[in-house]
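Students often ask why we bother encoding 3D structure as a string. The short answer is that it lets us treat folding as translation between two languages. Here is a chain of 145 residues written in the first language.
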Amino acid sequence: MYKRILLAYDGSAPGQQALLDCQEIGQWTRAELFLVAVMPTLATPIMAEGWAYETHADPADRAAYQAVLDSGVQRLAEAGLQAQGEVVTGHSVDEIVHCAHRIGADLIVVGHKHQDSWAARWWRGSVSKALIEHAPCSVLVVITP
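And here it is in the second language, the structure alphabet:
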């Protein structure tokens, strides 16, 4: 049974549905719950001995991600569950996989919304699809219409 569940949480409609499913699974299994919000880095070109990119995070963006994450943790707390949350910065799939390894997750839960057009599917890619390929454990993809 699942002992540690990692929820990749962004506060979106699919993320909200994933939170509800994670809440149900957590109540059923009494697993430890961990929420992670992945904030993309900003790339700024810098000139040193050639071109390179410096990555950094905007403090205002970090505060917004933290607020979304805090609301998810609070919602789980109101349901009688204990959860921890963390905002990380980087590429979504890499950071989720890294977090899953670090906490020893048995299950990763992620929300997903089908893209309307082939162009959107091609351009944006799919975090859930890539996550399945790299995850160290089972992945539950919660689909919202």
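Translate back mentally: Residues 4-144 form a domain with the Rossmann fold fold (CATH 3.40.50.620). Keep this in mind for the problem set.
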